[in-house]
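A note from the maintainers: we've had questions about how concatenated examples are separated. There is no special marker in the raw files; a new sequence line simply starts the next protein. For clarity in this README we add a label.
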Amino acid sequence: MPRFKAQSTKLEPEHAILVGVDTGTGEWSLDESLAELGRLVETDGGEVVATLTQRLEVPVARTYLGSGKAEELRDLARSLDADVVVFDDELSPSQQTNLEKIVGSHVKVIDRTALILDIFAAHATTKEGRLQVQLAQANYLLPRLRGMWSHLVGEQTRGGIGSRFGQGESQLEVDRRLVRKRISFLTQELKELSSQRYTQSKARWESGVWRVALVGYTNAGKSTILNKLTGSSVYAKDELFATLDPTTRAIELEEGRKITITDTVGFIQKLPTLLVESFKSTLSEAINADLILKVVDISDPHAEKELSVVDSILKEIGADKIRSVVVYNKSDLVSEEALRQLEAMHPNAVFISALDGKGLRGLLFRIAQEAAKGDITMTVEVPYEKGILMSMLHERCQILHEEYHEGGLRATAKVPERLAGTFEPYRLEG
């Protein structure tokens, strides 16, 4: 018999209490919103042990909850030995500080924004993604520094020995300067990366490459679609925010046209404004796309609400005027009858199952149709010494007929509108 019992080294998940206030004004019910918050907690490695709700016309300015409910939260946290309390809406710095005093210093009090930031920090892999998360974290932290130094400020206001140095305030100001300096540095770094991304995007535009962006609610299956269409191996997992950094892959359509498809960060309801701002350079792939595929998980009971969230964020970043197609994914998870009803309700949408490949050929055909809109049929004769133009003709245009003549390649092709000017000097009459 062994002298010592083997102990598991696996970290125990933190016990979390979810808190929400129902004001009756949201598009989502409180239960729906808290269910999503629970998934976020699980994504971040926590375990939900209890949920506390309150019905209020407006949240209480001092503690978000009513005083009685705040005390109930304290007692609940103690009885369940909770590690963290997560509020469904963003707390003000003073609300967070006051709640921490009530609940106790042994329990963390955070909000949805802080939770999402924590998940983003764990999932960002590229330099740009990490910088964007750090910038959002710094902007979130700055107004909350006073609360973090409240114990020192309190010692100062009490007076007595050691109080004349202004210890808390001086440290607070030092920290504020450091955070502001950090924000300035991160902003500049992201500007430089954004400039590089713009240059790359501009080059793709000028080369005539047609660009498709996959957008959608988190966990809708965008990465799986990208992998299936392009033969890639982008990380795809059944968890929220599995993909943060944009991934672009090239594909050649059956007609011969080369396009790019980009997977973007997943959206979520109540996505903090500071995150949208921080990730605008990443979302520029959607802003600069020729076609946006709005991917929706058809099996999710909140599918239409999630699509509404996607539409509102696209409007927020200025991408709502770009041509788009709704793609209902995971059709293998609904019944045939339900699928027929949805197809009848959304005749312009595309229905697929990325996991088993069903409907992907139809999706590619739809992309080809959209790409062909605005094409100009031209007959051109490109001299043989213009090798780049000849490659562009074959890779970016749809060749209808071609012949090789003494003067060069004579071809009739459907030319993308943005390339028409490039081939105009070589256009033949008639």
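[label: protein 2]
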Amino acid sequence: MKVIIIGGVAGGASAAARLRRLDEQAEIILVERGESISYANCGLPYHLGNVIPDRNDLLVMTPEKFNARFRVDVRTRCEAVSIDRVNKKIILRDLVSGSEVSETYDKLILSTGSSPAPVSIPGADHPGVFHLWTLADMDKLEAHIRNGAEKVLVIGGGFVGLELAENLNERKLEVTLIQRGRQLLPTLDYEMSSLLVTELRRQGIRVEMDTEVTSFQPEGKGFSAILSNGRELPADTAVLSIGVKPNSELAKTAGLELGTRGHIVTDQELRTSDPDIYAVGDVIEVTDPIFGGRTAIALAGPANRQGRMAADNITGRHSQYQGTIGTSVIKVGRLTAGMTGYSERRLASMDVPYHKIYLHPNSNASYYPGGAQLHMKVIFGHDGKLFGAQIVGAKGVDKRIDVISSAVWNGKKIQELAELELRMPQQRIR
């Protein structure tokens, strides 16, 4: 059997490693546009902030080590140009030489991921304006910062935007975070997100809400960002973090079925509309386990799991992917924010009836020192079925959001949370 995998990083590299473990004889080709096939893209902001000082620590596996360990034909700086589904052939182009070769396949896995959404801001081609998505992006931004950057605008208040703003602030740069809407992190609700705004400002990060950049005007060695509220912010650096799009162009030209937002449609075994082509990661739609519809959630954990399952199914093990509910955490200063399932904002937009409760427990038992207050929001249906939860606090957020995530995943009701037998939330008592 010959399997070609297009794209590395999370889903593709996981699929290749799993395939080799399951099939010693399979011919496996892993194709990646960049120079690295497996790296911690979530760690990019933390390298820029010197939290992860050694760049090599971001490299989960080099192409050479991957080939030596798993006997996978790794082709970096290479891209897939087209897929001939009838003859089961794919055209690959070497991005260095420009030469093209044709490869046949028995099974194909698309792990083409996502990329920053295109922007149409006048002046965004200024040399001081960047994205942060790949190792190459990080290296370019790092070189620019070392060249004397002082004032940085981070445009977009999602996960990457918040992490980048905090890390550049730790590097003693003057940071302004600009968010188009009235809140940060659209997966949170407003009142929970507001706690993070307060924490960012406590750190000295300027936060501009309810406004957006309409243009960049060159000014001296830098530029002025013109905001929709009429203000002008002078800076020498800007990082755009204002949305992503699935890299589904290859799938589209091959005639594979796409969803309404351009993601590849897959079944529970991660097959596309072509039974010999599988797809994993940011580029696909998945099942919504809560309401049964379709959703697309770009997270590394689900992508890794999907890659392994696709390999299982190619080798006849019939693993079924049950969906993604978007459980995640983010550190913001002294706080951690955790979220799982649906927010109130999202449910309201769907006209789904719900209830909500707020809880403010201590992270530890009250008699034990060192505790910190948690702010919790739990959302559920009329019958008590859990829809989602959000937690913000200084300690114990990750443990609690994992418990609630498990309950949401298993269709539990809020009444059942009280019946769970959990460890007392305290440290060790002597």
